[in-house]
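Usage

Read records sequentially. Each one opens with the input sequence:
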Amino acid sequence: MTPWVLLLVPLFLAAPARAQGDAEAARRAAEAAREAAAREADLARAAEILAERLAAERTASAARLQALEAEVIAATERVGVSEAAEAEARQDGAKLAREMEPLLPPLLRLAAEPAPLLLAAPLPPGDVALSLVALRGMLAEAASLSARLREAESRAAREAASGARERRRLEEARGAARDASAALDRQIEAARAQIRASTAAERVALARAEREIARARSIEEALARIERQREAEEQRREQAEARARRAAPPQAAPPQATPAPPAAREPEPAPASGGAPVAGTLVRGFAAPGDGGPARGLTYATPPGARVTSPCGGPVAFAGPFRSFGRLVIVDCGGGVHLVLAGMDRLDVAMGRRIRSGEPVGVMAREGRPTLYVELRRRGEAVDPRPFLRGG
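and closes with the structure output:
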C-alpha cells in the first residue's frame, strides 16, 4: 500500500464519527428549539390567563363602583326629598304662626278674665251670652291652630333628623365610591402597563388606523372605515398563511376528511346583563325628536366622574376623540353589531384591545352636567339600544 493511501485511511475512518457528531448536535439543537418553543407557549398561555383574570377583576370592580354611584344618586335624591319635606313643614309652621299672631293677645286676656271684660261692656244680657259663645269658638280655633303648629314643628324636626341620616349615608356612599374608584384606577394602570409593553410596530399600525378612522365625517363613515380595515387585516393574514404553507416542506397528503357542513349563521351577540353602561338617568330616548332630527341613540345624564362600562365584549374598533362627540369608543360586539359610547372625558381602553362585557372603558367629566351618548349599529344601521341593554 502506497504511503498516500495510508494517509487517507484515518480520514475515511473519521468521516462517520463526524457525521454522527453532526447528527447529535442537530438533534440537541432541535430539542432545545422545541423546549424553547414550549416555554414560550407556556409563558404566552400564563400571560393570557393572567390578562383574563385581571380583566375579570376590573369588570367586577367596575360593577361594584357603578352600584355605589347609583347609591350616591339615590342617596342624593333622598336627601333632597327630606330637605324639601323639612322646608315645607317649616313653611306650614310659619304660616300658622302668622295666622295666630294677631289673635293671641286678646284671646289670652279673655281667657284669663272673661267676666270683667264682658260685664264692663254696656250690652244687653243676650248679647253678652252671644259674645261668650263667640269667645269659646275663637278659643277653640286658637287651640286648633296651636295643635297644627305643634304638629308642623314636630314634622319639621322629624324631617330634619331624617335628612341628617340621609346625608350621613350619602357621605358614606361617596367615600366608598371614592375608594372603589381609586382601586379601579390602580387596576386600569396595570392594564395600561401591559398595553405599553406591546411592540412598537403594533403601536404604529394602531395609531395609523386610529388616525384614519378619526378623519371620518360621521359615525357611519367611521364604521365603514373600520370594516375596510378589518377586511384588509384578514386579507393580509390569509396571504401570510399562504406564504407560510408554500415555504413549508412537502408532507404526505392527509387522509380524505369528511366535508364540513356549511357554516351556520353567526349568532347575534347576547344582551349584556349589566343594563345601562353608566349610572345615570335616561334623558333622551331612541327616535326622540330634536334639532338634528330623531335621535339615533340614547342619552344619559350622569354624575360627575361616573364610570362607563361596555355592555358587550369584543375588540375595541376605535378609541379616541371624534368630531363633536368628545372621546368615543366603538366596540365590535360580533354578529355585525357595533356599540358606540361617546362623551367621555377620559378613556381607559386602547384601540385593538379585546375587552369583556362590563369592563370599564372610560370616565365622564368631573365638572358640569356630563352626558353619555349610546348608539347601537346592526350591520351599519342604527337600532334601538334598549332591548340590547336589557333594561337600559
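Summary fields computed downstream for this record:
- The mean pLDDT is 79.
- Residues 49 and 232 are 29 Å apart (CA to CA).
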